Amino acid sequence: MIAGCGALTILHAYSYNIGELARMGPGYFPLMVGCFLVVLGVLVPLSPDPDEVLEDAHAADLPQPTRRQRLRGMACIAGGIGLFIVLGHYLGFLPAAFALVFTAAMGDTSNSPKSAAILAAAMTLFAAVVFSWALQLQFPMFRWG
Fold first, then answer.
1. CB atoms < 10 A from the CB of 72, how many?
2. Segments making up each domain of the chain, as ranges
3. What is the number of H-type helices and E-type strands within the chain?
4. pTM of the entire predicted model
5. How far apart are CA 131 and CA 106, in angstroms?
6. Is 19 strand, coil or helix?
7. pLDDT tens by residue, 91-115
8. Which end of the chain is more exposed for a tag (fewer CB within 10 A), N or C?
């Protein structure tokens, strides 16, 4: 089903101008999403059964996350995305990327604020190189207001 939706998305994307990586047309993003869906649709049936994975984890006596820890992770990831949207609009890409990674990393209870900040700084630097220099993304690195 997922691969089928992806294939239909790819077919429909070709009715628009695709463009190229440096100058993306309106069909470029749907084409990439369709390709992602096709790959995902192929990989999902190949993935292990979640019940078997849980049984293996219980058999190995691995610590299982509590409901509160799982909710914290989901809330931090959603909050990080929200921060990226707001901070990206008002402060630019770099502060938004840092806030996204830092907030999402704090969703894992094994991360300290220091390790989350180091991870966020490294990922922000990597994202700046990839999106600004390599892909020439038209998103201001810093902005005020």
1. 16
2. 1-59, 67-134
3. 6, 0
4. 0.61
5. 24
6. strand
7. 999 999 999 999 999 998 889 999 9
8. C
